[in-house]
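Kindly go through the following sequence and its backbone structure tokens. Advise at your convenience whether the structure tokens fit the sequence:

___
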Amino acid sequence: MTTSSDCGSTCPRRPRPSAPAGSGARVPAALDFQSFTWHLLHHRVPWLYRTFHKVHHTYTSTSALTAEYSGAWETLSLGLFAAANPLLLGCHPLTELAFFVVNIWLSVEDHCGSRSAVGHAPPGAAGAVWRARHHDLHHLKSKCNFAPYFTHWDRLAGTLQTQD
């Protein structure tokens, strides 16, 4: 009950300074795969798209408000993934809180077309990290760019599109 490690601790004590970085990297990696799979299925299965995900695609041009514009099922299911991963990985509550703040920030940023240094590769990078333009293309075409953070799942599935 007295450990202070981030993952696997028995009580929520202050995490070690290095702990959030380690567990913080695993949480987005897990969520990226889950969200990619969820998102791809909701676009490939017409009933799922019509019933649950179409609300989010009401607007083809993205804005900060469209980031969180979704129905109850979509909000609950994606929120469950986001909340379950830090818990399953045994992360400290402060790490989980930090993840939620950064996750919502990046979602809003990706929908409003801006590109800050947080979580994004510079324009000349190999495309390993998600950028706002990729999500703009997703809302325009609806058949590409499904992953929330990284592009490797889209690259492997053949759904990555980098230009119009």
